[in-house]
Amino acid sequence: MAREAIPGGAILAEEVKALYRQGQTDYWLEPLVVVDPQGRPAGRVGEGDVVVFCCRRGEREIQLTEAFVDPGLDRFPRRSFQDLLFVTLTLYHEKFQHLPVAFAPRSVEGTLGEAAGRCGLCQLRVAESEKYAHVTYFLNGGRDQPFPGEDGVRIASPRGIPFDQVPELSLARVAEEVARGLRAHYDLVVANFANGDVLGHSPNREAKIACAALVDARLGQVIHAARDRGYVTLVTADHGNLEE
Questions:
Q1: Which of 8, 43, 47, 207 is deepest in the core (most CB within 10 A)?
Q2: What is the pLDDT of residues 47-96, one digit of tens each?
Q3: What gap in Å lies between CA 25 and CA 164, rounded to an integer?
Q4: Burial letters for 202-218: b for 16+ Cβ neighbours within 10 Å, e otherwise?
Q5: Which residues sit opposite 128 in a β-bridge?
Q6: CB-side exposure of 83: number of CA atoms within 13 Å?
Q7: Is the Cβ–Cβ distance between 81 and 47 less than 8 Å?
Q8: Alpha-carbon gap, residue 71 to 84, rounded angstroms
Q9: What is the sign of the dihedral through the CA atoms of 195, 197, 199 and 205?
Q10: Beta carbons within 10 angstroms of residue 221's beta carbon
Q11: pLDDT in tens, 193-229
């Protein structure tokens, strides 16, 4: 969406406040484009510019970086730059090794998955697509490839419908796959229940309450199944929006 430029240095801050007053929240803010009095974008990236990308998420910055530097990207119309210095915060992916990096990544050694693989244990990682990177790439210290003995099950999250309309997401299938892994006697099973994180960003209070109840029920099923098979279960929480 394009908006007329606001004089002074608080352009974006004032626009964000305006969207807040309209009921929009951080997770769902509409894109903002600052324009000059003639309606032309005031900050569009052009030839000869320098872009310093200050983002670290694990997947989104890879897609956005590709849009600027990958000449073979054809998923949407875009400009092909010939003279653009694109600096990444850290090395987002091996494919970007030719780009300048502000902070080179450090190798994370001795992760849980690495230790399990070194001991010859079999391990299963289960999550729906919204949070699959959390039980693989993130948990493995930024490693793209699985460790020896590591299997993964990625279950598709709902698409084309607001998440607050389907607070269970694909949790039933996630729980089923965890139970299957327990029955298959995996030495280590790592799962992510995406609901609390995803629904925590929604302003829909009823959906959040429903989400908490659904997670509680499925977590109970998984814990009981694990106990019946002699597993030790560790439960960790996310960053807290749902608890409010």
A1: 207
A2: 999 999 988 776 789 999 999 999 889 989 988 899 999 999 998 888 99
A3: 14
A4: beeeebbebbbebbeeb
A5: 155
A6: 4
A7: yes
A8: 13
A9: positive
A10: 14
A11: 999 999 988 889 999 999 999 999 999 999 999 999 9
- The residue behind tokens 């690495």 is 114
Q: What strands lie across the sheet with 123-128, from one edge to the other?
A: 150-155, 123-128, 188-191
Give residues with Cβ within 8 angstroms of 111, minimum separation 6: 139, 140, 141, 143
Q: Which amino acid is at 91?
A: L
Which pair of tokens denotes residue 242? 């749902």
DSSP per-residue codes, 79-105? PPPSS-EEEESS---GGGTTS-BSSPP
For residue 57, give every residue at least 6 positions away whose Cβ sits within 8 Å of its Cβ, in sequence order, or none.
Answer: none
Residue in the structure block whose two tokens are 């324009």: 35
Q: Cβ(78)–Cβ(67) under 8 Å?
A: yes
Q: Which amino acid, one-letter code, is at 231? A: Y
Query: What's the pTM value of the predicted model, to 2 decimals?
Result: 0.70
Nearest C-alpha neighbor of 136 from the set 192, 92, 97: 192
